[in-house]
Amino acid sequence: MADKKKSKKKSDETEVIEEIKPSKEEYEVAKWLRNNVPTKKTKFLNHNVQYFTGKKAVDALMASTWGTSIKEGDEPFFTSRAHCIDFLDVMLHNKFFHRAKKVPINEELLKGKKKGAKDEKDKKTVKEDKDKKESLKDKKKKDDGESSHAEGKGQEVSENEEERQKKKKKKVRLEMHFDQFFADNLDAYVWIYEPIPPHYWLFGALVVMAGIGVCLFPLWPPSVRLIVYYLSIAAAGFLVFVVFLTVVRTIVFCFLWIVTLGRHHLWLFPNLTEDVGFLASFWPLYKYEYKPPVETGKKKKKKKEKLSDNEDEPEPDQKEPEVVEVVEEVEDTRIEEKEEGEEKNEGSGSESESSSQQSQTGKDFEIVDKAEIEAQQ
């Protein structure tokens, strides 16, 4: 009884391990779909993938030779749309493609902004749009006198801009769908099957033939073996020359760096060890750079002290306080002299009216004739 139970368990395990292999028709349909059904590129789990929609795949198959009979009386491979959907569902379970879920991407989510910032920005944009609309209305009212031709052009431009904004494609990312079955709708199906292109087979065959030819080197003619011998010596010499150049360029760089205390940098064949093409690695021939010495902490402190000393010194344009005091004393004496002249001329009304005038600047001054000065003397 125990042996029978063990044998049953083993048979169950083999049934689980065995998988249904895809048929030739499935491979042919997959190749045809890859070449004829339009696909789009996007990211799926941080990988660039291609996907197609289920409805377009079914439409393309039903309109092709797979869904229509070439000769009269012959039945097509897909007799109905339901038959085509069932066949594609089998292909999905055989891992030619898998179903995915479309998730739209917002630009704000890509930038990683918070919801509160989004709401505030939305409010600001709404206010700005309202202000712009109001300003545009005012301008339109003012510019009513313009020609109708110019107005028509402006309307066409605004309509074209709106159409362009509507035509902008929405970005989409894909996520794994929990329900894996094929449906005749606009769901996304990511390709897993990638047919091997024919040139891959050709290159692979050439590599195999080259390996066999190298193994048969002792059987080659003597002249061919001599040519291969010289070519191998030339290749080895070229490698030795490249190594010699790398050593020489490092010696030259170190010598100049030591002599000039790190100020002059000279590299021969600077791209020799860079990840570039064959010809680009030998061009340019040299690269020279001059790097001034770096200032230490003590030198920086000395410069700061000099700058502070220069700031403390008085500027030549600035007036000294002594000069200002002298000017103030002169002004006081002038005011006292004017007051004494006014007291002397209080008796003469006509003369005082003409003499006591004030300027618009607020400073008092007297208009004196020569005859009055001579009479006073």
Automatic annotation (TrEMBL):
Residues 113-165, 299-377 are annotated as: Disordered. It is found in: Endoplasmic reticulum membrane. Belongs to the SEC62 family. The keyword Nucleus does not apply. Residues 347-360 have a biased composition (Low complexity). Residues 113-156, 363-377 have a biased composition (Basic and acidic residues). Signal peptide: none annotated. The chain crosses the membrane at residues 200-220, 226-259. It comes from the Eukaryota. Coiled coil: none annotated. InterPro entries: Sec62. It is a multi-pass membrane protein. Keywords: Endoplasmic reticulum, Membrane, Protein transport, Translocation, Transmembrane, Transmembrane helix, Transport. GO terms for cellular component: endoplasmic reticulum membrane. This is Translocation protein SEC62. PANTHER family: TRANSLOCATION PROTEIN SEC62. One of its GO terms (biological process) is post-translational protein targeting to membrane, translocation. The lineage of its organism: Eukaryota, Metazoa, Ecdysozoa, Arthropoda, Hexapoda.
